[in-house]
Amino acid sequence: MSREQFELPLPEMPRLSHFGFSDSMEKCNFGSHYHFGYELIYVSRGSADIELFKGKPPVHLEEDDLCIVSPSAVHEFIYDHQVLSFYWMGFQTGLKIAVSEGHMIPPYQLLRREKSKTVQFQEIYNNEIDGIVGEFNIEDFHIFRKAPGFLPLFESIKKELHWIDPYSSQIIYQKILEIFIRIARLLQSEVRSENKGIAYVRNYIEAHCRESINLGELSCRAGYSQEHLSRYFKDTFGKTPKQYHNEKRLNAARQFLTARGSVQDAAVYCGFNSSSYFSSWFRGLTGTSPKNY
User: Fold this and answer.
1) Which residue has the higher pLDDT, 69 or 197?
2) Residue 87 CA neighbour count, 13 Å, CB half
């Protein structure tokens, strides 16, 4: 059981705010805190239920999982009586750290920026990384399950921090750039997968709009929790699945009634077992009874 943390940031790597490795730790108690940049936690061995946000259910992390916490998100990292080996890294992006970067770079380099290879490569990598993370849409945190491709990158960064030489900062920035590229790729892959799931839900509702739909079961078939489905569906289409279903079902009822169908027949046509319940549902959505429509 050991914990290793490096003295950071360094003048040649001002955006790398912290980096460390905890090996076979049976407990951890980082209280509420936040960072100006992204914090990444990669589990190399073991598993644990982590108290990540006060007042919310624990987050389960296990071997090969990567957790990324957004800048300024107040979080914790607390667990006990569980064994976990993990890397942690903080990296600042964007314009917020421009002032701190200026303080980290020696004055003579600031005056002669065009002649400083260190500053030049920093600017290149910073611009690349800023462009990538600018596309991230992570509210507080995100977990990537079973992502072993990150392990050699964290191992390489740790190795370079042990043996700092004139080329270490460039290698470390390359590895950090690759980490964020891999994160962007995984996020994009998840978006494509979610789009397929949402399209399935919408198509199912449209094909079965005159029926009673169990949205809990539909959520499971699409691969979501019902809460996640409702939120993501509304973000995509501007209404929840229940609202979308009611809208389609109501349109079918209106069309049937317009063709002079009876209220009883309209109830059966729209999948209701009771004409009185159908009337109550119709009135709740339109403000008028189907008989007077």
Assistant:
1) 69
2) 21
